Each structure stands twice: as C-alpha cells, then as structure tokens.
Amino acid sequence: MTNRRHFISQSAAMASALAFPLVGGAQPKSVKVGVLHPVTGALAYSGQQCRLGAEMAIEDINKAGGIKSMGGAKIEAMLGDAQSQPQAGSAEVEKMNEAGVAAVLGAYASAICLATTQTAAKYNLPHVVDVGVADQIVERGLKNTFRFGPGYKKSTEVAMANLLVLNKAAGNPAKTVMIIHEESLFGTGTAQLLARELPGYGFEVKEVVKHANPTRDFNNIVLRMKSINPDIVIPANYYNEYALLVRTMQQQKVQPKAIFSVLGGAASSYKFVKEFPDAANGIIDCNHWFNPKDKRAQDLRKRVEAKGQFFSYEVFMTYASMWLLADAIERAKSADRAAITAALASSTFSDHFMPYGPTRFVNGQNEGAQPLMTQVVKNDIKVIVPREYREIDPVFPLKA
C-alpha cells in the first residue's frame, strides 16, 4: 500500500513538474488560414504563383513575431487546390470549414472566387479575394467577402480613359478595335464592358472574338484579324492563351498600331518578357501592379527571383492580401470568424507596397485599389501611368 501511495505521489509530482515548464513557455495556438488556389489544371501556373506569394507572406509575418495581440500566434496555412474548377474550389472550402480555419485567402480566377466566396458565406467564414476581378464577386451583398485589388469595371475605366489620352496626344491615329477574349467570367465580362464603353470614347469595335480555355491554336483568329486590320488589338485572356495569341500575330506578321490589354494574362509578366521578348515588346497593359518606387516591392522581387520564380502579379497580389488578412486578425485579437470579418470591414490597412493608399472596404471592395498602366520596353516592364508612379514616357502608337 505504501509503495502504491508513494508511486501515486511521485507520479503527481512528476506531472506537475512537467506541467509548469510547459505553461511557462507555452506556445500560443496557431491561427489556421485556408490558402486556396488552382495549383493543377489549366490555371496551374498562376495558382502556383499565388500560393508562393501567400507562403512568403506567412513566412514574413511569422518571422516578424506572428499575431502579437494573440501572444505571437503563428499563422498556419491549410493549402487547398481548386484544380482550375469552381466546384473543386467549393469542395475545398467545405474541407477548410470542417478543419476549423479562421479565414480563407484565394482563389485567383473570377469563376472560382464566385463559387468559393459563396460557399464560405454559408459558414460566415471570412474570405479575402486576392485577384478575381469579376465585379459580381463583391456585388452580391456577401458580408464575408473582401477584395483587396481592383475589379474589371475600375480597370476598364482606367484603361479607356488612358487610351483616349494616349490616342489624342498622338493625333488620334487609332480608330478601330478588335477584342479577343477567353470564355469564362473574367474574359467575357471584360470584353462585354469594353465593347459597351469603347464607342463612347470614339472607337469602333470591329469584332469581339471568344475562344475556349485552353486554346492551342490561334491561326484562324489571327487570319481573321489580318482581314479586319484593326488599329488596336485588345486581348483579355489568361497567361498561356495571351502568350500564344501574341506569338501567332508575330509569326503571321500582324502588327497593329497597339496591343493594348486590360488585365492581360501575360502582358505584365516578366516570364512572358523573358521567354518571348520580341512578341512582348511595346505591349501596353492596364493591370495589377506594385508601386515601383517602394523598396519593399523590389526586395520581394529579388527574393522571388532568387527562388528561380518570376515576380508576377499573382505573387505580389496574394502576398499583399495575406498581410491585409494578418492585419485584420491582429486587430480582431482572436481567430473568431465574426471578429475577423468585422476587423476586415473596418480595415485601414496601409502598410503595403501596392499603389492604393489606406484600405477602405465598401460592400467588400477596396475603394482605394487601382491598376497601373505598364509598357514592355527593352525587355523590362515599366509604369507609364499615372504620373506619380511613372518610370518612362509611353510609346504610342508602336507603328506609324
């Protein structure tokens, strides 16, 4: 009996001795965040780039002390693959909800974001949209949805206003336009907006051509372009199709006065510029872009390139969006979904390298977000508009 008593008291003493050091140096619980992108399927390249941006941001946030208001809690990513399909994206959100994530970040493509934000709304799960540009994403009154970047309405308005200015300054050489777009929500929505707005700016829309995703051959579309001979070609498509379209134009010696894109999938891509410098030369794009005068953006670019990757808009948009989410969790002081949603709704996040100023969400859209106009010059991408971010003067038209 004595032995048994002695054993019990010894066990209790050991247990308490072990417990105290653990409490003293207890690690704060991590905050689990769903990071959801199409890392397989037709949009895999862009999805992988987004994931890279998210993971680099989490690494930097955790290195900087994690969520300080929660005792330095680290952000822990639950990675999801939307497989380039809206329904797969929704299924991943279901899994993330089951796993108890505090919020979701993603999901790159507009059609996927439309599905994932809707599914997340069922669980009052805050969802930060990194890239998806279709305005329907933030126009459905979902209280859980917050888009950091500009949508296609804003991007189209900026692009059209600047096209008008560029054309006027050059003596109005461009009068006709041909629009070529991919078939999903992003391309179709952008093309419809452009076709509706361009005539009001004095441009005649000769033709609007839709293509499938993926498309492996643009010869017929470019032959059609040859016969129409538009002054300006406006592509609205994802990376692979954009690059192939412009290369096919080059092969068939089709040279419009300008290739002018709105949210062009390859136009503002260092990958495209490196792989196809001649095809990329001179292209103007209105797209997501960082503040070129902010040293933090240049430092991140160096780090991304040191990993053998390109500093594409997917990387820096998702990187900045993750910091926005971390800022909200910091102010929510908890992993509670309602608290994070409230913190996002009242966000004034401004510690970033995007050309936005402080964040202000109205119906889930960051009112301060704006695209920049860039042009490919001498195998590099430079900002041409607006003036406060300008690195070079625009060249328009490319061909007299």
Question: Per CATH, which architecture of the largest domain?
Answer: 3-Layer(aba) Sandwich
CATH topology description of the largest domain: Rossmann fold
Provide the domain count. 2
Helix content class: 40-55%
Name of the CATH first level of the largest domain: Alpha Beta
Identify the CATH homologous superfamily of the largest domain: Response regulator
Strand content: 15-25%
Largest beta sheet: what is the strand line-up?
Answer: 7-6-8-9-10-13-14
N-to-C series of helices and strands: HEHEHEHEEHEHEHEHEHHEHHHEEEE
Major beta sheet summary: 7 strands, mixed
Structural class determined from secondary elements: alpha/beta
State the total count of DSSP E strands: 14
Estimated radius of gyration: 24 Å
Mean pLDDT: 93
Identify low-pLDDT runs: 13-24
Can you count the helices?
13
